[in-house]
Amino acid sequence: MEVLGEYQTDFLWDSNPSRKGNMNLAAGAVDGTVLEPGEVFSFNDLTRGLDYEAAKTFSDGGVGYANGGGLCQVSSTLHMAAQYAGLEIVERNPHYAVLPYIRPGFDATVWFGGDGIPELDMRFENTTGGDVLVREWVDEKGFLNARILGEEPTGKEVEMRSEKVFEDPARGIKWATYKKVTKDGEVLFDGLLHTDVYGYNPPVPEGMPHYETNKPRVGGWPDPTNTTGWAETE
């Protein structure tokens, strides 16, 4: 098999060991999945029901602390690998607020459902002519890695970019994400992929366990106006 697409994000920006443990569990559940042509990958189907620990989350319009913190970094990293592989994204949902570990518009939140909130999944389809292998793992250098391999290379070259459209306290922060796909020199798609409006996070609740954070080394968005309150910026 050949590599169709890959992506990497940093998790050492958050020193909470529970976050790393949760990512290891979720990445391990995803790693090794084989999709036949036309088969749809579901992140939630593979990762629900595992023994997750409490870590920081984005929930209820702010920063929370709940079991499963870190799963969205696993789904977001894999989402971008699927984008670069040229596969069809069936379902992708943005987070409430801008994240420190991935550029706005590239994220893909997940939620198993509950508390009156419907399930949010990250799904993509194997649109190639052969089997596809999904790989995802946490390495010893502090990076979360996602890679998609295929029996039949698509020949597609994918470029992704996003840019801020506006920021307003009353309307939120709007970002536009663009994608360009070429094959054998022919442009198959070049335009707007989606727009997302992110909110502002309130202060971290008092009494929440505090772990030292820093600016991500790759994949993050070190914007001084970042309202997550998770990572220090220069």
UniProtKB/TrEMBL annotation:
| UniProt protein name | Vancomycin B-type resistance protein VanW
Q: Specify residue ranges for compositional bias: Polar residues.
A: 224-234
Organism, as annotated: Rubrobacter tropicus
The UniProt keywords, alphabetically, are:
Plasmid
TM spans (from-to): none
Upper taxonomic lineage:
Bacteria, Bacillati, Actinomycetota, Rubrobacteria, Rubrobacterales
User: According to the UniProt record, where is the region Disordered?
Assistant: 212-234
Note the superkingdom of the native organism: Bacteria
Instruction: Cite the InterPro entries for this sequence.
Output: Glycopeptide_resist_protein, Vancomycin_resist_VanW
